[in-house]
Amino acid sequence: MKDGKSMKVNSQLQQNGHLPPFKLAKLFDPETSWDKDQLGDVLHWMRQSVALVCGLLWGSIPLVGGVWFILFLVISTTMIYGYYAMILKVDEEEFGGHGVLLQEGLFASITLFLLMWTLIYSLGHF
């Protein structure tokens, strides 16, 4: 298995003299082909970053109440839907439908959001 990886790297090195860099533009290119795992990982980590930012923001303002939790869910879900449907323009049926794509990373992001929100709020107001 290791030999297969090193052969692939060596062939890439021989083609152009250096390794191809990870292109951030791939994340915004609708022509890029995605497999289920790659797209799932991107959606998962996008949702985690939204959870981190919202948790830090909500805790530092300080905001309390269920309406802010619902707002986080709306923001997070809207960003994920907008990303895969409007920016990447993927056919959601190839990946299991809207439900599967919208659930990607949801429960982990709720945990991270609540943890950050509570932690920042508690540190600032005890």
UniProtKB/TrEMBL annotation:
One of its GO terms (biological process) is mitochondrial respirasome assembly. GO terms for cellular component: endoplasmic reticulum membrane; mitochondrion. InterPro entries: EMC6-like, RCAF1. The chain crosses the membrane at residues 56-85, 105-124. It is a multi-pass membrane protein. It comes from the Eukaryota. It is found in: Endoplasmic reticulum membrane. It holds the Pfam family EMC6. Keywords: Endoplasmic reticulum, Membrane, Transmembrane, Transmembrane helix. Belongs to the EMC6 family. This is Rab5-interacting protein. It comes from Cucumis sativus (Cucumber).
